[in-house]
Amino acid sequence: MHVTIRVPATVANLGPGFDILALAVQLQNEVEAWSEPEGGISIDPGPDSSEELRDPARNLIARAFVAACAVARVTPPCARISCRNAIPFGRGLGSSAAAALSGVLAANALANLGWDEQQVIARAAEIEGHPDNVAAAMLGGMVVCVRDGPVAQVPVPDELRAVLFVPDGEMSTEAARRVVPHSFSREEAIYNASRCALLVTAMLTGRLDLLGEAMRDRWHQPARSELMPHVPLLIDAALAAGAHGACLAGAGPSVLALCTGDTEAVASAMAAAARLAEVDGQPVTHPVRNFGARVDLAP
């Protein structure tokens, strides 16, 4: 059996929705997996990948494949896995979620586990650490994640474009999470909760003029901006150039701007702000994606 899996990049948090909201964009990794009669699991991580990613014990796709079979209490089938990675590592675009989800989906297909979407999301989230990026990658659009509850998908306006400034340097998700305060005031809780609600309303109703206010945050972004001082500068530049809203992309260091107008002007403004901040990188623009992972099976 042969399976081809295409999983999109995702941006989590979207400002106020820390560990709650995420959005899929039209940039994807592609993984192919073949059942083999023997030989265990072998993996080709794609060109320009480090040697350690060729080790199934250290490759997240292969580890997720094995872990999914262990949860289902089945022996992992022998498999050959090949990857074509377009999502950059360590930039806040959901690369680890895409890898974990790809491995679970490959196991679901080749080991015939029979899991539905919610089960796949739950298993991949256990492996990756939290559900927001995983859910957006699986379902597409914007997702709302409820701890110990269901994941809901919110379709977003198709005309939205994600303008991303992607720095050359990586940011450790663990380091970016460590600086986030464990608690904050009632006033700040109300501030963020109201903007989460406003953000969902803006997407559902097409009121994109609300995004500028809806994507403001008083919790994780101020703390993370101490590690990444370019973030508020790029957000301000994007909004001044006509973006509807802007935020830190996931744990960073990328910055996301949501636009429907002159995306080139927004991209140029973000690049100029990055140069002033002495941050090397490049702007890229992708459509939002209202569909999630795709799995194609062949005998």
Question: Would you write up a description of this structure?
Answer:
- It contains ten helices and eleven strands.
- It is of the alpha+beta class and 299 residues long.
- It folds into two domains: 163 residues, Ribosomal Protein S5, domain 2 (2-Layer Sandwich); 127 residues, 2-Layer Sandwich (Alpha-Beta Plaits).
- Strand 5 and strand 6 form a beta hairpin.
- Helix 2 packs across helix 3, helix 2 crosses helix 4 and helix 9 runs antiparallel to helix 10.
Strand content: 25-35%
- Describe the biggest sheet? 7 strands, mixed
* CATH class descriptor name of the largest domain: Alpha Beta
Q: Roughly what is the average pLDDT, rounded to an integer?
A: 95
Total strands: 11
Secondary structure topology:
Elements: E1 2-13, E2 17-35, E3 41-44, H1 60-71, E4 79-84, H2 95-110, H3 117-128, H4 131-139, E5 142-145, E6 151-154, E7 161-167, H5 173-178, H6 186-205, H7 211-214, H8 220-227, H9 230-240, E8 245-248, E9 255-259, H10 263-276, E10 281-287, E11 294-298
Parallel strand pairs: 3-4
Antiparallel strand pairs: 1-2, 1-11, 2-4, 2-5, 5-6, 7-9, 7-10, 8-9
Quick rundown:
This protein has 299 residues and is of the alpha+beta class.
